[in-house]
Amino acid sequence: MPIVGSWIGGSTSQVVLKEIIDTPDPLFLSVLLIDNIAVNIWTILMFQWIKKSDHIDTKWGIQKEKNTELNADEKKGSWWSIELLVIIGYSILSYWLPWSFLTMILCTSVLGVLISALIPKWNSANSLRWAGWLIILVMIFLGFKLDFSHWNIPLSLISVVLVWFVFHALWIGLHTYLFRVPSAWLAITSMANLGGISTAPAVTAAYDQKLMPHAVLLSILSMATGTLWGLWTIYWIQQLFVTI
Q1: Radius of gyration of the chain (CA)
Q2: In terms of Cα–Cα distance, which of 41, 128, 132 is closest to 80?
Q3: Taking the mean position of all CA atoms in its chain, how far away is CA 243?
Q4: Which residues are within 8 A (CB) of 20 and not within 5 positions of it... i.e. 6 or more apart?
Q5: Residues in Cβ contact with 101 at an 8 Å cutoff, skipping those fewer than 6 apart
Q6: Does 33 have pLDDT greater than 60?
Q7: pTM for the full model?
Q8: Please, is 191 exposed, middle or buried when counting C-beta atoms within 10 Å of its C-beta (0-12, 13-18, 19+)?
Q9: Is the pLDDT of residue 72 over 50?
Q10: Domain segments of the chain: what residues?
């Protein structure tokens, strides 16, 4: 399940699902290592793909559309004190409320999406900076709990990773070809899904910096829904094994 969380929502969804289903530390470390190696290799491939996307479009007979630039708010904004106050206040409230880990994660995700959608001023450079530091903080605290003494990389796990990548590439490539979407979007959406907000804008910038806001939005959508997709996968697999 951490694989599902990581490749839909990124590392944060990965560690959340690890805590929810209590994945053993040796297995989780194996997933973490394979995940980083695989995504880094895929990022290199997507850099090469997006650089050659115009040539691929010509071969596939796809017409290149005009770029649509989003008006992203890159200002630091004057809301940094309010944002910090909300973060501290919500952290204290979450500590005292009798919430389960799953409830806290779901409520926080929904609240974050609602705030960013309903309060335009919240989408500032400061908000992204706070979010980045908080993600690092979460990873550090969860990393302290891992046991590095016993772990290995089973071949079955590598097989799952390879099958996932092949299916991902075929699925997104087929849709790109059938719907005549410019092939640059294959790399952008793929990295938003697998790489997340840290790599999708970088790959996009190698093609056209005006498309970077789109990559950021797709990455945020992936992060917001990654945990939910992981939970749905857990439920589906549990029902499958119960039926069997």
Answers
A1: 19
A2: 128
A3: 31
A4: 1, 101, 102, 105, 231, 234
A5: 19, 20
A6: yes
A7: 0.68
A8: buried
A9: no
A10: 2-243
How high is the mean pLDDT of the chain?
A: 76
Q: What is the pLDDT of residues 188-234, one digit of tens each?
A: 999 888 877 778 888 998 898 888 888 878 887 787 777 777 788 87
Token match 């908000």: residue?
A: 127
Tokens 């599902």, residue?
Answer: 4
Extract the tokens encoding 3. Answer: 């694989």
Fill in the amino acid letter for 216.
V
How far apart CA 138 and CA 142 sit, in angstroms, is 6
Q: Could you tell me which residues come within 8 angstroms of residue 123 by beta carbon, excluding any fewer than 6 positions away? A: 72, 73, 116
| The CA-based dihedral angle spanning residues 216, 217, 220, 225, taken in that order and rounded to the nearest 10 degrees | -140
Residue whose structure tokens are 């805590």: 19
Q: Do 146 and 95 meet the contact criterion of CB atoms below 8 Å apart?
A: no
- Residue 77, sorted as left (phi over 0), alpha (psi -120 to 50) or beta, turns out to be left
**For the packed helices 125-144 and 11-21, what is the interaxial angle rounded to 10 degrees?**
40
The residue written with tokens 């790109």 in the block is: 176
